[in-house]
Known about the structure:
The complex is a heterodimer of chains A (248) and B (266). Chain A is of the alpha+beta class and 248 residues long.
Amino acid sequence: MTSIGTGYDLSASTYSPDGRIFQVEYANKAVENSGTAIGLKVKDGVVIAVEKLVHSKLLVPGANRRIQTVDRHIGLATAGLPADGRTIANRARDETANYRDFYRSPPPLQAIVERVGQFVQVYTLYSSVRPFGVSTILGAVDKNGPALYVIEPSGVFFGYHGAAVGKGRQLAKTELEKLKLSELTAREAVIEAARIIYLVHEDAKEKEFELEMSWIGPETNGIHLPVPKDLFDEAESKAKEALTSGLE
Amino acid sequence: MDHFPTNWGRPRNDAVDLYNTFPIHQRPSNVPKDAFSAGIQHTQQPIVTGTSVLAIKFKDGVMMAADNLASYGSLARFRNIQRLCPVGEHTVLGAGGDMGDFQYIQAILDELIIDEFAAGDGHTLGPKEVHNYLSELMYARRSKMNPLWNALLVGGFKDGERFLAFVDLLGTTYSASTLATGYGAHIAQPLLRSAVEGREDTLTEDEARKILEESMRVLFYRDARSLDQYQIATITAKGVDISESRKLETAWSFAEGIRGYGAQTQ
């Protein structure tokens, strides 16, 4: 970034002469430093997995969750500043509550993503605030079937079949592209998700991490729930197996 | 006949219909409106109403019954209304009174349950919590002189414990092993008490269902705002089960022998 020190990066309300907003780009840097999060939209559901880097052995296992629940049928994972991630989740919850209050029905994910995206975008307009340092993966099974979106710090959002954000996103994306996502079941996708997170982590030679996984599918009755222990353990051991056989 | 002695000798109040044909419409009035009360109008009476809800404790939990009718005054207006609703995984709410207010309460509770689910902290709301929340809600609304016009029964089973309690539009609460709202509080409650009290820990599910069915039948014979279609909710350690709508067996042949009822031939 050659423009550092030119003064155009001090405020989100100032463009650089070539039309960029540096504060938003710095927010993306905050995301890139975070553990990877991935989302898989498959035939009958959605799976979300997170590589949660654990920076201290003194932390209670399971603390500082990065997958959060928005509504019965909507889950979200963030990569970036954990506190910003919680703000986004709280806003998403408020928006689902508002949607339900207004329309008396469970919100389709797109409606919520549009609102949260607008909320994030507003933080790129003013010098008094900083943009959110998170990219958010939102997954749901709604009246239109499975849905998966990513909201970036700029406020833009796209729908995906498979999504990856955070440090290992490049490798994770190439792994996701190899899968036939529209043919997998949610159960199969859990196995793949765990494998990808383990692979991405090994590639980066990072410190300790915890795997976090949640899913929405026929086996959860369309509700966003943590992956049950037996399936979680199976996926984790298969992921470790795949790693060792891959290294040999 | 006005049975309330405090009303005797006072001017007649046309806004109150003692002969049970409410809701009656607001009469045109030439009297200037009170400037203070004209701006905000609060609920004065229920409009679309449900009648009794019955509930009893039994060996394995709690059972509740309510018919499927929502009346508009004396008109049997909606005949497929559900007056029992699950709240979370351990609780059933049954409502008499204004059905619009009841549906509003359901929306509030749904949001509450979603908030608790989204917290994902491993805790869920049980019947005790739901009942206490409702009592606070009802009392707060009556304190604003704008009550939610319902009598509610909250029944549930959580952590090996049965729970059954009442709360109404005033925020009044009480608990017993048999409860009934509305007309059922007069007609069915004595039947339930004699059938259940002292036997809460031995009554089987089938026996409990029979007791409620018999009480619903008596209510259908006696309560002019009731319906012969009703549902039964069973809450046990296994969770909540609300039955499909079922129909009461009733016999009306005796009616022909009553003089002054139907066509008289002699």
